[in-house]
Amino acid sequence: MNTMLRKSVLGVAGLAFIGGVFAGPIAAHAAEPVHANPAVVQADKPDSGKLIPHGVQGAQSRIGLNDEQTGNVKAIIAATKKAGMPERAAVVSIATSLQESKLENLGHLGDANDHDSLGLFQQRPSSGWGSPEQITDPEYSTTAFLKGLKQVDGWQDMPLTKAAQTVQVSAYPDAYAQWEQQAADLVAQYWNS
């Protein structure tokens, strides 16, 4: 048994050495210094690893935003900061709003309405999210969504679509994933503005 363990360890060490020999020149080339002006680097720009820690799930969608939608992005980010939550929470929130309303603060849509769903997150007064006036207030609706997100154990370490679905309980649980890249791009663009 001891001999088998030693052979296994030596075999793994040999593979690691061979891998290092072949990867050495590539790694050495990759380690060459990049000549950049350090004054241009923004130290406080959100880290992309924090914004999309699992990578995007599936094909991504993207829409152009008008001034109202951009204002709603900024409102979501401001509410996230006010709640003391990290950039990832803003990514989850924005992706959720992109799916639910395309970042439009929707009022009652008559027959086209999904039950009594309103606002950026299509929250329902009848489900306890708040009054119609509250739900159509971007700060209130974002804070309500974030309150729900905080109650999801481990939301920071789960794929975006699972975190969003746990809060929203949508009939289309995987649909949130398609907005992750655009949401991360928007957080990177507006987090410090």
Automatic annotation (TrEMBL):
Annotated signal peptide: 1-23
Alphabetically ordered keywords of this record: Signal
Stated name of the protein: Secreted protein
Organism: Micromonospora eburnea
UniProt lineage: Bacteria, Bacillati, Actinomycetota, Actinomycetes, Micromonosporales
